[in-house]
Amino acid sequence: MNSMIFKPRIVVGTPVSPKALFPSLAGSSFCVSFAHPRDLDRAIESVGDEEILVLDNGAFTIWRAKDKAAKTGKPVKLPKRLQFENLGDYRAAFWTWANAAQESSPQAVAVIPDVIMGSETENLLEVSWALREGFAWFPERVMAIWHLDESLDQLATLCRLMNFVGLGSCAEFDVQKKTPAYLARIAEASEVIDQVEREHGRRPWIHLMRGLGLFPGLTRFESADSTNIAVNHTRHKATHGDERVAFMRRRIQGQVDAGLDLAEIETVTSSITNFDDAPTRRPKL
Asked: The CATH number of 9-281 is which of 1.20.1280, 3.90.1690, 3.20.20, 2.40.128?
């Protein structure tokens, strides 16, 4: 059995305000959304060499605004840069943005546009657009999203194909509102991921979308993001001043480290593990 070093990454969601606080997060992992890209340059400058910069596709933000408009009968409230006539226009705009960011940052991993409330076939087609049609300039550094209400077969397919797979919660398995159901589904997903590793001798980097709050109790995942630091840091202004975001990040990292029991992490004979690799050293498929 191989010994494996497991390093979970705490991914700080952006934007972080005021911008003067950003330098205290230097060396961290970050998530910057296509829908809210203000901190992209700062994240590129600040991301650690062994960390990850997740370029979120902003699909949920766009879908939520359109869904709310449809239900209320009011106009869609989105900035002009996010108003697209069709999916093809959105796809092209996202990849133009993501490819440029990945050219500047070898740690950057682009989240393939996912079709919110779409079918498994529609989401696999987006993977195809990225990888086979050349939209992604760095195919070894792209992440496909598996929604928890999709089939486990879909998850297995993505784990066999991709270097990075993100697990996205949904209404039925919402990470905050339906936590027991979310955890039960994550357990099922873990079995599938482990089985792929047994069969193929490798596993993708697994990222939990919006899953940082539960990350301390989930040991076999590489990273998780949250906007908790960006949203709640003012609560610690009186006690930690301009170091409050760094304080929150250290505290969360401590909680994750405390919850990590290496003895419970299964090893696989002759496994090529991604556990301690930086994104720049993803094995090419």
From this structure: 3.20.20
